[in-house]
Amino acid sequence: MKITNKKLLYIPVIILVLAIGGLLLNNYLKKRESSQAVMKYEELVTTADAYYQTKEYANALRSYTKASDNLPYRSAAYEGIVRVLLDKRLYSKVDEVLSSVEKKLGEQELSFLYETAGGRYYEMGLWEESLEYYKKTENDLRIGQIYAKLGEYSNASKALEGLKDNEALIVRSLIYAVEVDLAQMSSVIADSDCTREDKTPSCNSVNELKNLLDTAADHKKDELYIRTLFSKYAFNQGYALLAGDIIESALTEEIEYWEAYYMYGISMLAQERGSDAQENINSAITLGCDLSECYLSLARAYRLESNQVKAGENYERAILFAVEDDKGVLLDEYIEWLISQGLHVKAQQYLDDYPTSGDITKLDILLKRLAIHIDLEDWAGAKELLDEHGKLPTDLDNGMVKQYYIQKAHILLSIAEDEGYMTEMQADIRNTLEKLEKIDQSDPWYNLHMGRYHLLTGEREEGRSYIERAIDADITGEVTNIARKFNI
Question: How far apart are alpha carbons 69 and 41 in whole angstroms?
Answer without folding.
Answer: 9
